Amino acid sequence: MRLLVTGGAGYVGSVVAAQLVEAGHEVTVLDDLSTGHADAVPDGARFVRADLAEAHDALDGQDAVLHFAAKSLVGESVEKPELYWRHNLGGTLALLEAMHGKGVRRIVFSSTAATYGEPISPQILESDPPRPTNPYGETKLAVDMALTAFAGLRGLGAVSLRYFNVAGAYGRFRERHAIETHLIPNVLKVATGEREEVQVFGTDYPTPDGTCVRDYVHVADLARAHLLALGAVTEGEHKIYNLGSGTGFSVKEVVDVCREVTGHPIPEKVGPRRTGDPAVLVASSDKIQAELGWKAERTALPTIVADAWAALSGK
Ligand code: UDP
């Protein structure tokens, strides 16, 4: 197929673009490089440096769009809500309008567990109420709502994939954010000497060791789900699936595994809770397993961390 990958110079987008190229698709990456990296665009993909409002020409002749381009920092979204609404909702609406104009009727969208907010069940289901607690989650949910509306009114075929905690690397393709907020890359930066210690945000949560529990899903597994989703896009329908491993690990468990993998003592410092962090976030991915046959395979935390470490350290 001929595919446009927006945000394909970012972490998840670059891994999906690489897997699409490997699968024999004709891939164009559209990215404004505001947070992505030109050298993350995989060999074999065409690269267009442009933002979503300029996607028009790149849509010519495409069979489908995989849409990753977005602002994705929760804290920044609270400080600059206008920026998030403009980029994430405004940018996507411009893209959808351009798709409509060019007759491109299929999209796979990078959504997030942040659309749910505080969980009401031990394993979050797609049918749980979406109640985001920050502008990042709100804007992603707004896009999901637009996709549902356009599926009904325009015959668009859409699949939204709601990611839990994406981690690990796919070969050389790894997480590289100028402002790094995520746990695993921050812990590994202590092992490379880039940081002195890891901050543990709160040890008084109602969890077995008092630190937050998250569902870490390997980026290679996550990317594979996008290829399955592409095959499942049905015009006139909007399908939503969670993507997680179904198992939770605490912050302390993550830090311990990073110590084992890197052989570095990784000093830690306990700090206060980070605002807006729920105690436990674990996905049920039963729906995508039942409907598309997807299941996370690289679920062992040492595997996830070892892949991230190998890509970061070159070991
Ligand atoms: N966390 C931490 N120290 C850090 C970064 C994150 O203790 O330097 C915690 C954070 O409070 C959360 C978990 O690690 O409980 C995962 O955070 P991350 O930002 O990686 O993902 P999120 O679950 O917020 O999407």
From TrEMBL:
State its Enzyme Commission number(s): 5.1.3.2
Residues in domain NAD-dependent epimerase/dehydratase? 4-244
Q: What is the uppermost EC class here?
A: isomerase
What are the protein's UniProt keywords?
Carbohydrate metabolism, Isomerase, NAD
Question: Which SUPFAM superfamilies does the annotation name?
Answer: NAD(P)-binding Rossmann-fold domains
Q: How does it assemble?
A: Homodimer.
> What family does the Swiss-Prot or TrEMBL record give for this protein?
Belongs to the NAD(P)-dependent epimerase/dehydratase family.
- According to UniProt, the name of this protein is UDP-glucose 4-epimerase
Its source organism is Nonomuraea typhae
